[in-house]
């Protein structure tokens, strides 16, 4: 077996508790995706009701990411104090309650404030559900995180379809979001009792707990990612010896995660507005932009664990960056409803495994307290969600939304370059 083809883990037979915990955490991922994406297809209506332009609307949308950035670094503390299960499940309930403020905002500033609160809660919930998913993954001893993100995408598709249907039926936004909040809060509460008990590091294997063993493996990974494949591990590993590579890795992983966020936000925040504005699609059709994106991302994530185990994180990420850049580039060069939906679908497929790969790699970096790498990369991911609506909205007002969506092409190119920090962990 080559150094570039290291198996993620040795597969084992999951216990009944592990299977039930996987189903429960998958339910949390589903609700987390569905809650916010019920709102997204209503953006054209909200924007029209507020009477603002693209740049102002993009600034309001940035409230979500600002809240997420400010609260995101608190996720590790919340998880250590209350546990990832409690934070993830009951955090979703509180998030659904906060979405009920959206229909009653009188001004774009108030809309941004409502999104600020939702984003702050979502950032903490997101880290908690990923932390719990990684606990379950350790019990399975093989990759399952991509499939959990796939279930999140199923939730996003479900939420997008609910929102598109509500928009097409002209259902009042308040009624629509009350139905969403009641439904998904019930799912989150029901899932809580089946999540894993005990401390957050209870499932780490003895091999990972052994500093020398864990450090040897990760030292090789860091050396390969840092441009020196096959470099031997240090004879006397210390945290300081790998501090600089770990910092470089976290920075690169954060940029990769931010690229994933930028592409996801382009589909979520601007797809419906681009279709309804530039391409004159009706409300129900415009809402299909986020549905096309999330359906493709769902398919990519549900098959992503096997693909990543077979070809490795680096290879899959680079291929995905090329696919997203080429697909969206062609759609913008040949604008129509059909090509735009196809372009968003290819972007969703291309970036399906990007965020899970960055999170997994960050969580396994040596010399960091439990959850620190995951929390930092998740926080930088939120930076991408903050910059995206501001950047695209500003460019859209200056040169048109069609030009603003070139950010997806740029993100694909950056991903191709920086994916070198991901280690190919393929099956032998």
TrEMBL record:
Query: Which membrane topology describes this protein?
Result: Multi-pass membrane protein
Q: Which GO terms describe its molecular function?
A: transmembrane transporter activity
Origin superkingdom? Bacteria
Looking at the UniProt entry, the stretches that span the membrane are 21-40, 52-75, 87-105, 111-128, 148-167, 173-195, 246-263, 283-303, 340-359, 371-395, 401-423
Major facilitator superfamily (MFS) profile domain: residues covered? 246-428
Question: Cellular location of this protein?
Answer: Cell membrane
- Could you tell me the keywords of this UniProt record? Membrane, Transmembrane, Transmembrane helix
- The reply to whether Iron-sulfur figures as a keyword in the UniProt entry is no
- InterPro entries in the record, alphabetically? MFS, MFS_dom, MFS_trans_sf, MFS_Transporter
Per the record, the coiled-coil ranges are none
Q: Which GO terms describe its cellular component?
A: plasma membrane
Q: What is its main location?
A: membrane
Q: Name one Pfam family in it.
A: MFS_1
What this protein is called in its record is MFS transporter
């Amino acid at each position: 077996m080559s150094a570039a083809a290291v198996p993620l883990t040795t597969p084992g037979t999951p216990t009944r508790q592990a299977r039930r915990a996987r189903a429960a955490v998958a339910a949390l991922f589903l609700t987390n995706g569905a809650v916010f994406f019920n709102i997204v297809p209503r953006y054209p209506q909200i924007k029209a009701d507020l009477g603002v332009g693209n740049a102002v609307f993009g600034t309001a949308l940035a409230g979500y990411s600002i809240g997420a950035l400010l609260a995101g670094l608190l996720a590790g503390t919340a998880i250590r104090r209350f546990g990832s299960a409690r934070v993830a499940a009951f955090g979703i309930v509180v998030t659904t309650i906060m979405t009920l403020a959206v229909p009653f905002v009188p001004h774009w500033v108030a809309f941004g404030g409502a999104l600020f609160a939702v984003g702050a809660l979502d950032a903490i919930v997101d880290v908690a559900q990923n932390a719990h998913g990684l606990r379950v993954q350790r019990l399975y001893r093989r990759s399952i995180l991509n499939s959990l993100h796939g279930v999140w995408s199923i939730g996003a598709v479900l939420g997008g379809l609910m929102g598109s249907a509500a928009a097409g039926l002209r259902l009042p936004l308040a009624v629509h979001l009350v139905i969403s909040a009641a439904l998904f809060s019930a799912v989150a509460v029901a899932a809580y009792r089946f999540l894993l008990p005990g401390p957050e590091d209870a499932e780490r294997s003895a091999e990972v707990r052994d500093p020398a063993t864990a450090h040897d493996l990760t030292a090789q990974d860091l050396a390969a990612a840092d441009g020196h494949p096959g470099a031997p591990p240090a004879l006397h590993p210390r945290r300081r010896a790998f501090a600089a590579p770990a910092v470089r890795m976290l920075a690169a992983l954060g940029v990769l995660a931010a690229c994933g966020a930028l592409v996801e936000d382009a589909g979520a925040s601007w797809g419906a507005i681009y279709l309804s504005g530039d391409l004159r699609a009706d409300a129900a059709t415009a809402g299909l932009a986020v549905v096309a994106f999330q359906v493709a991302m769902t398919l990519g994530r549900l098959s992503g664990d096997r693909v990543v185990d077979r070809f490795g994180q680096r290879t899959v990420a680079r291929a995905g960056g090329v696919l997203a850049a080429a697909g969206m580039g062609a759609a913008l060069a040949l604008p129509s409803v059909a090509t735009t939906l196809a372009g968003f679908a290819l972007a969703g497929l291309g970036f399906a495994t990007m965020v899970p790969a960055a999170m997994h790699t960050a969580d396994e970096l040596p010399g960091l307290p439990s959850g620190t790498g995951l929390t930092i990369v998740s926080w930088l991911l939120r930076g991408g969600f903050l910059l995206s609506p501001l950047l695209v909205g500003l460019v859209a007002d200056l040169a048109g939304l069609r030009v603003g969506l070139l950010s997806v092409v740029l993100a694909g190119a950056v991903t191709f370059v920086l994916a070198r920090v991901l280690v190919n962990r393929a099956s032998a």
